[in-house]
Design brief:
eight-stranded parallel β-barrel; two-stranded antiparallel ribbon; alpha/beta; single chain
């Protein structure tokens, strides 16, 4: 839950809009970085997304993080799991590493009190998709059962539909979630670029609500836990997971605006995964557009060009 603003913004509380931010210099640094960009939530990697090896945060790191979080104007943090994880792999070594890494990722997320751990469902790598779905679901369930109880849920993210990646359609996502059969510990993160790349038309009025209903049919509550908002560098149905800045791709601002309004109405947080430059101007520009799409005043922190 977001806290009241301590930055002098009007409105009393921060909308749950945010960015993927760097953890360079320590986990505690994510809060001032988010505040400088008018964030009401942030997403991070808990370690290098291209490495299997990492350690749980030690007590001093965890203490610094907890103190910074308690003083910040927001507290929502999402974590994106490593891109190396493939819970559907038929390679025994990749499968072993994926299970061990996901378990450690989820343990880290719970130590940090994260709102969710985002995970791509996996890839069949050219094999039979139905078997890959069952492998992924069985291994995810194994991890969840090793870390029982409440805390951070695992959020499966829809994919762009390329090759053998699982989870691009509502039917396949529902099949995976039903096979995991841990509704109290799972949820969905919907990515606008991935929806568009996998062929869904986001321009049609009401398309967003229909897609939410279809993807979330297997979940209690019937809504995603998180939106990744991005424009798409390539045309609809390309299958290519290449993000663009808001209004700078093939989805366009009108369709993205429908998603923003839908997310705001359902109080679903939005994280931008838009391209970044050397500085923070691209983040600032995309956050300005996000606030404008929501019909909200642009905060002073990001108002200047």
């Amino acid at each position: 839950m977001t806290k009241g603003s301590s930055s002098g913004r009007t409105g009393g509380s921060l909308p749950r809009f945010g960015l993927h931010v760097s953890t360079a210099g320590g986990l505690d640094r994510i809060f001032p970085r988010g505040e400088a960009l008018a964030c009401g939530t942030v997403q991070i990697f808990s370690h290098s997304s291209r490495s299997w090896e990492f350690a749980l945060p030690d007590p001093p790191v965890l203490a610094a993080y907890t103190t910074a979080r308690s003083r910040a104007s927001f507290s929502d943090v999402f974590i994106h799991a490593s891109y190396l994880i493939n819970m559907a792999s038929d390679d025994p070594e990749i499968a072993r590493k994926s299970v061990e890494t996901l378990e450690k990722e989820l343990a880290t997320a719970r130590l940090l009190g994260a709102e969710g751990l985002v995970l791509h469902p996996g890839s069949a790598r050219g094999g039979e998709r139905s078997a890959a779905v069952l492998r992924a679901a069985s291994r995810i369930r194994e991890v969840l059962d090793r870390l029982p109880g409440g805390g951070t849920p695992l959020l499966l993210e829809n994919t762009a539909g390329a090759g053998s990646m699982l989870g691009a359609t509502p039917e396949e996502m529902s099949e995976i979630l039903s096979a995991i059969d841990r509704p109290e510990q799972t949820g969905i993160c919907l990515d606008s670029c991935h929806l568009f790349a996998s062929g869904f038309d986001l321009d049609e009025e009401g398309a967003g609500q229909e897609l939410v209903s279809r993807f979330c049919e297997a979940l209690p509550g019937g809504r995603p836990s998180l939106w990744h908002l991005n424009d798409a560098l390539y045309p609809r149905g390309s299958g290519r997971d290449r993000h663009a800045g808001l209004g700078e791709g093939h989805i366009g601002l009108p369709a993205l605006g429908q998603i923003v309004r839908l997310a705001v109405a359902s109080e679903t947080p939005i994280v931008l995964e838009t391209p970044k430059g050397d500085g923070d101007e691209e983040d600032r520009r995309n956050m300005r557009r996000l606030f404008s799409l929501a019909g909200l005043p642009v905060p002073a922190e990001i108002a200047s060009e």
